Amino acid sequence: MQATVSKYDGETFSGAVLTDTGIELPFTVHAVSDTPVRHLRVGQRVTIETSGSGASLAVTKVEFGTRL
């Protein structure tokens, strides 16, 4: 799923993304801990993986770039 970084704290490696469908989802350090992501900036495009659905939808992975 494609998203844009809407918030990011470089000290805690946590933040939020805004999906292309308009849903803002928070993420924690666990979403970036197994990836090369260390620095994100607000407005950056990312690819995310999620789990759950509805109110329990959660970001499980944040990666640079986009997938076709």
SSE ordering = EEEEE
Q: Quick check: average pLDDT? A: 89
Name the structural class. mainly beta
Gross morphology: globular
Low-confidence stretches: none
DSSP strand content: over 45%
* Strand order across the largest sheet: 3-2-1-4-5
- Biggest beta sheet attributes: 5 strands, antiparallel
Number of helices: 0
Outline the structure in words.
The chain has 68 residues and is an all-beta fold. Helices cover 0% and strands 47% of the residues. It is built from no helices and five strands. A five-stranded antiparallel β-sheet has the order 3-2-1-4-5, with no helix packed on it. The relative contact order is 0.29. The mean pLDDT is 89.
Structure described in brief:
The chain is mostly beta strands and 68 residues long.
Topology:
Layout: E1 2-9, E2 14-19, E3 24-27, E4 45-51, E5 58-64
Antiparallel strand pairs: 1-2, 1-4, 2-3, 4-5
Which features would summarize this protein structure in a list?
68 residues, mainly beta, five-stranded antiparallel β-sheet, 5 strands
